[in-house]
Amino acid sequence: MASVEIVTIGTEILLGHLVDTNSVHIAHALADHGVDVYANHSVGDNAGRLAAMLEDVLERADGAVTTGGLGPTVDDLTKDAVARAVRKQLVLHEPSLRAIEERFKQFGRPMTDNNRRQAYLPEGCIVMDNPHGTAPGFIALRDDGKFVACMPGVPREMKPMLAERLLPWLVQRFALRDAIYTKTLHTVGIGESTLDSKVEDLFRTLENPKIAMLAHGGRVDVKIMAKARSREEADAMIEPVAAELRKRIGSGYYGDDDTTLSAAIVRRLAERGLTLATAESCTGGAIADAIVEAPGASAAFRGAIVAYANDVKIALLNVPERTLEATGAVSEETAVAMARGARDRLGADVVIATTGIAGPLGGTQDKPVGLVWFGLAFGDGEIETRRLTFPGDRADIRERATIAALGLIWRRIERDVQAPLGVQAQTGVP
Amino acid sequence: MASVEIVTIGTEILLGHLVDTNSVHIAHALADHGVDVYANHSVGDNAGRLAAMLEDVLERADGAVTTGGLGPTVDDLTKDAVARAVRKQLVLHEPSLRAIEERFKQFGRPMTDNNRRQAYLPEGCIVMDNPHGTAPGFIALRDDGKFVACMPGVPREMKPMLAERLLPWLVQRFALRDAIYTKTLHTVGIGESTLDSKVEDLFRTLENPKIAMLAHGGRVDVKIMAKARSREEADAMIEPVAAELRKRIGSGYYGDDDTTLSAAIVRRLAERGLTLATAESCTGGAIADAIVEAPGASAAFRGAIVAYANDVKIALLNVPERTLEATGAVSEETAVAMARGARDRLGADVVIATTGIAGPLGGTQDKPVGLVWFGLAFGDGEIETRRLTFPGDRADIRERATIAALGLIWRRIERDVQAPLGVQAQTGVP
């Protein structure tokens, strides 16, 4: 078992002008490899304070993992502090100098003394090359075996260096055997307690792999965690549990790990040759925006009519004026009319319509802030409706409504996976 | 001058399962009061490690400010660690016990021994009451004058305690006189270097207040920072500089501090009795969504047509088929036709149209990924166009394009602030 503390270097991060996302990423990755993370620290670009902090860290833990402080203007003081903490000199590292020279030649830019100084590193350190930037990372070693591993602060430089250089070194150095490997199953449209009742026995009995649930904003994730010696071994343990979970969850399950809900919808629509359109009032284009976020959206997405003003609902979505007068813009009838109008105008197989009260003003006893009516058209069938009320402020309500709309789309198309459609011929471009 | 380090307590935060927003808030507040923040730390619920960390902090700084670790299940070990670090005993604090008893009586819940233990505090500490929760905060004092101030981790409990209890105590204790007060001016559509050239002399010569620039995603903020004894004194120093900056920046300036670009647009449109609509392809509804995000958007926003498929551009925006064939969907001609079509269909005074290539696929030599054409209609005048190319991935490009579109709208309506419009009569509902 190895123990580590994480140190984020940079005045901008210390004072909160830049948000640190690295330390959480590193903490997760280390924990997954069975490394004990004792603490995180954030310190400004100040050599004295950094050196003192590193000395303290090495008193408590086997090593420090740092990010940041390797840019051309500040890396002198970072490396100076690290060298002091491990009691080594800074010496020229020839291969790093050549790599930096090579990079500057490629880009045709002149090299400064500052750039050259980036090749000075603590004596005897292990260099971690940086194919995504100029500053190499390194692992500085103290004679008693303690270490300080320094990586750049830019996440797209740090992440591959961590995965491909630092973690393998730690695994070997500390003979780490079991790491924790995870797979996350994403669900939408199922309440946490409903999901819990479906998987409660697994939650209670499984030990390796074990499962955990994490709810966030209308979606619930089920995380499967296996302790194993390799990704392959872990996958062999995880996959049967994942298959059982998917079966139990049913149509609320939409994908694993990095899959987004909109990407899952776009892929499934494209697979089935279906098209999608939206008719939005309170969500104001957010559903369309979420769909277009997925690369390849053009295979399935036709477009949207955002009808914020009532007369636009009438003119572009054919909502009857008498419906608006009799039931109001936020009503089941209006949601149905909007979905039908968008189906006619945009000629899509699947249409979702939203109309609601996002606040802060406009709520009444009968129609409180947070109330949203959804209308869902599938093929040329009847329009289905749903009434939901969301908590929170304007931003929360709109975000929840957008996720709920995507969830309704997803569950509707999943429900019909086995059923024959036969609708494409009857819908078309207006 | 006082120096402080911030310590966030809690395993959930250390491992990144909960996001820490407290330390940035505290760092800002302390810095604004002239307290030097040396470092931030995050540590799990572990009394030994916390005590060792606090001892180290008190070696370097005048005090530690902690959040978290005061909930009923973990506060024993937190207070234990703090007591060790300041070398005091935990003793019963009668007023805190009575306050806790009172609270439980109010809510009609039974009190447990755990709740009662919350009233044990380091001997001689200063109690900071917590009107928003059960756990009081406290400032524990070591005989040499160093201190550990402990606050709850729940932000809505911590923030008032910091503002109303801890900061006034620090001001008195360390005879802090000058705090730093800031005002931020937001701009859009002006490059960092252009803005720099407009304010460079102020940047160089001003000392109190001084100014700084911060660029993020297509917008540049100018921050004015004054060192003063009160907000009033600071405002008197800041306001003349702000007025000069607003004059120099011109129509790119859209608001101060918490003002968002979409809120500024909605307010200005409503003031002038103008309406807005959008016609979106690559932005996919994101501009409309941003506008609707602003409370009160219904006063100015009519709606949007998201025409992602080409035949929707033809059917709903009257883009001539021959335009699409001759110049392609991503072209100046299409952007113009989209803006004109949306003006006709949605009857708005101001219309923005976007068509571009967000990637990852679809780019060519002439029309690379990142290219976006904008069309802007104002009143019944000629459609203005703009061609911009954005770096980054699909999400970056779409976000930049959305901000650029909002910037074009803002600068266009600002440009016409003095000019008579006389257009409302000529546009209307289709």
What brief labels describe this structure?
homodimer, alpha/beta, Molybdenum Cofactor Biosythetic Enzyme, Chain A, Alpha-Beta Plaits, Maf protein, six-stranded mixed sheet, five-stranded mixed sheet, 17 strands, elongated
Describe the structure.
Two copies of one chain form a homodimer. Chain A is an alpha/beta fold. The first copy, chain A, has three domains: 3-173, MoaB/Mog-like domain (Molybdenum Cofactor Biosythetic Enzyme, Chain A); 179-256, Alpha-Beta Plaits (2-Layer Sandwich), CATH 3.30.70; 261-426, Maf protein (Alpha-Beta Complex), CATH 3.90.950. Chain A is built from 15 helices and 17 strands. Chain A has helices at residues 11-14, 22-32, 47-60, 75-86, 94-107, 113-117, 155-173, 192-205, 231-249, 261-272, 286-293, 310-317, 321-327, 332-346, 394-415; strands at 3-9, 36-43, 63-67, 90-92, 120-122, 126-128, 137-141, 147-151, 179-188, 210-216, 219-228, 253-256, 276-280, 301-307, 350-356, 371-378, 384-389. The first copy, chain A, has a six-stranded mixed β-sheet with strand order 2-1-3-8-7-6, sandwiched between helices. A five-stranded mixed β-sheet of chain A has the order 14-13-15-16-17, with helices on both faces. In chain A, β16 (371-378) and β17 (384-389) form a beta hairpin. The longest helix of chain A has 22 residues, at 394-415. The first copy, chain A, is elongated. Chain A starts with a strand and ends in a 15-residue tail after the last helix. The interface between A and B is large, with 66 and 65 residues. β14 (301-307) of chain A pairs antiparallel with β14 of chain B.
